[in-house]
Amino acid sequence: MFKNKSYIGISFIILIFGIYAVPKIVERIKNDKVVQGDRLDSVNPATAKEGQLIKIGPAPKFELVNQDNKKITNETYKGKVYVLEFFFSTCPTICPKMNESMLVLEKNFFGNPNFGIVSITIDPEHDTPKILKEHANLLGVKSSNWNFLTGDKAYIFNLANKGFNLYAGENKKVAGGFEHSGLFALIDKNGNIRCRNDDFGNPILYYDGLDKKGVRNIQQDINILLEE
User: Membrane-spanning regions, if any (predicted)?
Assistant: First the structure.
């Protein structure tokens, strides 16, 4: 008897809660307040305005050698907007697509002295300056501001994994013997990593070099940075 009354009481409370709370939750979702109020509390509205790009922080410093056996550092790109990637010349998986994406960017900004590209090999033991020169020629690279860089393997892996937080690793079990990210870093004239927000207002950090939308996005954002 008492047990049945308890069930009735609990059911009544749940019913009242549903009548009161559910419409309010639905209303919040319709107005996108759940996302704005709960998920994005940590996002600074001043940096999330349309047309503006987020400043993530200074890009890691680097000093490597290019396909012409010349020393290239982050200072080489001071005053330039540039895109940076990690790759290797014999990569049979994602690199051909990344190359294709970079060639699109080179073509669209060719002749602009304030734009450049940095491609850093994660297989420096194979990718000597001579090999990288051949690789650049094979791709049909025309821009003098596109540098293919090589150097010490441990230094490069540290730069990728701890500096840019872009994964690079050696794995003999995978095709090509190496694994790495397909993301592109966008760096402004002052040496800061920059990016746009996603649809929820969160910084994307890096751009997908394997996706046409990602390439379109970075192309648009390069234009924004060139105007700054």
Answer: 6-23
